[in-house]
Amino acid sequence: MVQKAKILLVDDRPENLLALEAILSALDQTLVRASSGEEALKALLTDDFAVILLDVQMPGMDGFETAAHIKRRERTRDIPIIFLTAINHGPHHTFRGYAAGAVDYISKPFDPWVLRAKVSVFVDLYMKNVQLREQASLLRLQLEGNGGERHPGAGEDSEEAQGLLVELSARLAAVEEQAEALTKQLGDSADAATAATAAHLERKLAGLRSALDALGPGTDGDPSAQVPSQN
To answer: For 143, which DSSP code?
Structure first.
């Protein structure tokens, strides 16, 4: 059974949260409500989220301050944040959102189809990253179990492990291609949004690529010798 991704919805108005749930319910993921910045930060302490939809105008801790706290935490700094706002104070206001770490900035009332499509991209990338990490972990356990001991069938196990490495590398390459497509999809957004999104994905994918390459046994510091580059 495939585990669903979690999407954090942050807004101080219940009717806005209800509207977001209605729009995003078609994605069939787990939607988590937070009615304040403080409540959002509490939820982020224990759960992993694919993306955060964050209202800018909230009493007390507003969206900008909440985003700043999220980006300061090691655990949550790479979670994509989409700012939602009912006001438009011009380019300076928008730039402040990107400076706070947002990957996108949508003004209310927003097009439900556009919002759902943008969230869907981040959910898809998150699920692929989770799958890659799980497969890499299983492969590492298999390689460690075979390390240093020769036994009947060991050669076959080694060949199977190498085959899995190649498959994982190919799957990661597919995610890298999707990240490039995402950058193109966000091309009509402000330059700051595209740059922030690209930087976020580059960090995540670079980390996955490094972890995957490190699985190659017997490379003497050159894991790429065991895993063909798919870039």
So the answer is: H
Phi/psi of residue 168, nearest 5 degrees:
-65, -40
Span 52-74, pLDDT tens digits? 999 988 999 999 899 999 999 98
Residue with tokens 């995957």: 212
Find the helix or strand (DSSP H, E) in which 106 lies: strand 104-107
Q: What is the pLDDT of residues 73-120, one digit of tens each?
A: 988 988 999 999 876 666 666 667 777 777 888 888 888 999 999 999
**Closest by alpha carbon to 202, among 125, 115, 117?**
125
**Does 109 sit behind a cis peptide bond, omega within 30 degrees of 0 on the bond before it?**
yes
Return the sign of the alpha-carbon dihedral for residues 91, 96, 99, 102.
negative
CA of residue 217 relative to chain centroid, distance = 28
Q: What is the DSSP letter of 218?
A: T
Please tell me the distance from the alpha carbon of residue 4 to that of residue 1, in angstroms, as a whole number: 9
Q: Is the dihedral of CA 203, 118, 31, 100 positive or negative?
A: positive
- CA–CA distance, 224 with 212 (Å, rounded to integer): 9
d(CA 35, CA 22): 17
* Neighbouring C-beta atoms of residue 28, cutoff 10 Å: 9
In this structure, what is the dihedral angle of CA atoms 178, 179, 182, 183, given to the nearest 10 degrees?
-140
